[in-house]
Amino acid sequence: MSSSITIAGIDIPQADWDATPESVKLLVTVLSERLAHIEEQLHQNCNYSGLKKSGHF
């Protein structure tokens, strides 16, 4: 069984990642981290909105 890495919930074969230029790896890593941060903020905003609408705020 070949190894893989997971980025933004997507499994990438290790051989493919190893063949990826460093500049592209950096771009993918940075964008993945930014996406995770945005998703976290969105989740927090949804929770806040739900509390406010339900009167528990």
Arithmetic mean of pLDDT: 86
* Total number of strands: 2
For the report, how would you describe the main beta sheet? Answer: 2 strands, antiparallel
Task: Output the structural class.
Answer: alpha+beta
Shape: elongated
Order of strands across the biggest sheet?
A: 1-2
Instruction: Please tally the helical runs, counting DSSP H or I stretches of 4 or more residues.
Output: 2
Helix content: 55-70%
End-to-end gap: 51 Å
Q: What percent strand?
A: 5-15%
Which stretches are low in confidence, meaning pLDDT under 50 for 5 or more residues running?
none
Cα Rg? 17 Å
* SSE pattern: EEHH
Protein name: Transposase
Question: Would you give an account of this structure?
Answer:
With 57 residues, the chain is an alpha+beta fold. It has helices at residues 14-19, 22-54, and strands spanning 4-7, 10-13. The protein has a two-stranded antiparallel sheet. Strand 1 (4-7) and strand 2 form a beta hairpin. The protein is elongated and about 45 Å long.
Notable characteristics:
alpha+beta; two-stranded antiparallel ribbon; 2 strands; Transposase
Can you describe this structure in just a few lines?
The protein is of the alpha+beta class and 57 residues long.
Question: Which helices and strands appear, and what pairs or packs with what?
Answer:
Layout: E1 4-7, E2 10-13, H1 14-19, H2 22-54
Antiparallel strand pairs: 1-2
